[in-house]
Amino acid sequence: MKTLNKEMQAAITPSMAIQILKDGNKRFMNNLKANRNLLEQVNETSDGQHPFAVILSCIDSRTSAELIFDQGLGDVFSIRIAGNIVNEDILGSMEFACKAAGAKVIVVLGHSKCGAVKGACDHVEMGNLTALLSKIQPAVFDEKSIIDNRNSSNSDFVEKVASINVHRTVTAIVERSPILKEMIENGEIGIIGGMHTISNGEVIFY
Questions:
Q1: What is the DSSP string of 139-204?
Q2: Beta bridge partners of 182
Q3: Which residues of 100-127 are buried (b: 16+ CB within 10 A; e: fewer)?
Q4: pLDDT score of 1 more than 90
Q5: Separation between Cα atoms, residue 81 and residue 131, nearest integer Å
Q6: What would the 3-class secondary structure string for 20-66 be?
Q7: Does the reported pTM lie above 0.90?
Q8: pLDDT, tens only, 147-189
């Protein structure tokens, strides 16, 4: 697998970028890694990087974007934060990734059995985590289909909240970043949400 250079990055469209990630996830699920020389990629990216995607995912130890999408050094910008929420610093990072560094797609990736989502469902308050979980609370309130057992003991409730949280984050990115919104409207970049199932490694894009 070749290391991305500026010309290769420029030739990738947003839809192609999503397909590259889908193909990589299929390899991951089948334990078929692309043939890469990571030390060679260290050398080839030493003077610059040209990733094709920026992926916002959770800090969960089972959801490393580079692994579950079978990508190498220099392929993706990886932003990780509990609950895959968005804030000004993350928006700025995405604007850099897309406007300055040429990434073609933004992926908001949630995952099953998310601890941060469970914490929000249980209205946990603990130090600085309280403020973080408050950003997931709107997704808890938006989930209207389940009336009883609206807490982390109800796995269906947790997964539905996690899905809503991904959709809300995608919407927030577009609404809060005029730079990214314009790039999306012009077809320069794409944005998509998805969910990673930690039991089998599959990523389902919305």
A1: HHHH--S--S--STT-HHHHHHHHHHHHHHHHHHHHHH-HHHHHHHHTTS-EEEEEEE-TTT--EE
A2: none
A3: eebbbbbbbbbbbbbbbbbbbbeeeeee
A4: no
A5: 13
A6: HHHHHHHHHHCCCCCCCCHHHHHHHCCCCCCCCEEEEECCCCCCCHH
A7: yes
A8: 999 999 999 999 999 999 999 999 999 999 999 999 999 999 9
Nearest partner of 27 among 38, 19, 16, judged by Cα: 19
Q: How far apart are CA 173 and CA 79, in angstroms?
A: 14
Q: What does the alpha-carbon distance between residue 118 and residue 158 come to, in Å, rounded to a whole number? A: 6
Dist CA 181 CA 178 (whole Å): 5
Residue in 106, 105, 135 with CA at minimum distance from that of residue 119: 135
Q: In which residue are the tokens 């003077």 written?
A: 47
What's residue 38's pLDDT? 86
Q: What DSSP element (H or E) covers 205?
A: strand 203-205
Whole-number Å distance between alpha carbons of 65 and 47: 23
Rounded Cα distance between 3 and 74, Å, is: 7
Measure the CA–CA gap between 158 and 146, rounded to whole angstroms.
Answer: 10
Q: Radius of gyration (Cα) for the chain, nearest Å?
A: 17
Express each pLDDT in 110-160 by its tens digit. 999 999 999 999 999 999 999 999 999 999 999 999 999 999 999 999 999
d(CA 164, CA 155): 14
